[in-house]
Amino acid sequence: MTCNEFEEMGLDAERDASLSDAQRTAATAHVASCPRCAPLRDSWEATRLELRALAQATGTLTAPARVEMRLRQQFRTQYHAPKVRRTAVVAAWGLAAAAVLLGAMSWVKWSSNRQSNVAFKADSPGSNQGSSDQNATGDSQTLMADNELSDFTLLPGVLPTETDGSAILSVRLQRGALGALGLPVNEDRAAEWIQVDLLVGNDGLPQAVRLPE
Amino acid sequence: MRIADQERDDVLLRRAGKGDEEAFTLLYRRHQAALYRFALRMSGNAWAAEEIVQDVFMTLMRDPKKYDPARGTVGGFLYGVTRNRVLKHLERTPQREVSLEEKNENGTGPGIVLMDATTPAIQAEKRERVEQVWGAVLDLPSEFREAVVLCELEERSYDEAAQMIGCPIGTIRSRLHRGRALLMARLEMLRDAPRRATLPTRASVAK
Lengths: 213, 207
What we know:
The complex is a heterodimer. Chain A is an alpha+beta fold. Chain A has helices at residues 3-10, 21-33, 37-57, 65-79, 81-123, 131-149, and strands spanning 153-154, 167-174, 193-200, 206-210. Chain A is rod-shaped. The N and C termini of chain A lie far apart (151 Å). Chains A and B meet through helix 1, helix 3 and helix 4 of A and helix 3, helix 4, helix 6, helix 7 and helix 9 of B.
């Protein structure tokens, strides 16, 4: 082994696992006989001792506790804060969706109410003018007639017919006159004056009678 | 799953990635000291070492998927990130900007702990010597310094050092050889300096 080879490989031959036994033996033999490399080896041994002292002096050092504290704080911020934020975002979106749904339902309801109101107004007598007034009046009369007709009693021999065009005629007569219309009369009260409503048909003949009292 | 499996670095990292603070803390405590010492021995600056370690774990926290199990261990990955940060720091501040005598947060200089100092005088002397040796290490070019720190201070094998740095073992041997030569020359000079200072000069002898 030459001095250069010893410097490069032999100085730390014991630790260099990549060297063969033969190379280690050669290094030992060289340093034992070389007046240049022996002091070099001694110098290196002294240096190594000093490096050991440095390694020992710094061997127990650790990062200050504040580093761990900062990292854990950052960890919490990174992993826990977003969860809270995510929950808040989800809740906010949920509320917003509910508000929109509620608004839509309210609008639909309001809209349908509005349409039915318009339809009712269109059907009601006061909402139209002219001919529609006449229709409305006619309708109300019909309604009235329907209500009034329900109290009428058909005269004997008269078949129920449509009442369109019929008229109600209020007359004052003696009870006995009802016999002429085919109705039974109490002879004891035949001379009694009563108020009678007659339903007169298109032909001018009475069809039904109503006794208001 | 066995307990040993649960506490494996990659398992802890996976758990940490899902928000498990305990797993992250365990991972940090397991690796921080070695990374801090490496950064400190390389930079000679306690503040820089602290920042580097914090930065490394921040990186791990923010993007745990950067670690690829196929490419090695979590420890190796963390060392690689630390090494990159240290080299960047050394590029920015090629000169040692903080004296080893400056106090850190605990008031103990760079944190040197002398276990076997019997008296204050011996302690002071040893501290001074350790600081000189550290100064000599810090004066080495960064690639030689890294080899010396890994193989001499951290006592890693050549093979381990080569894997960590990512170079052939011959490169480690070569860097160590050159680093040692520089270191020995510097320390020889420092050893001789006190001797020269105490030796009587020719002029004083003449008197």
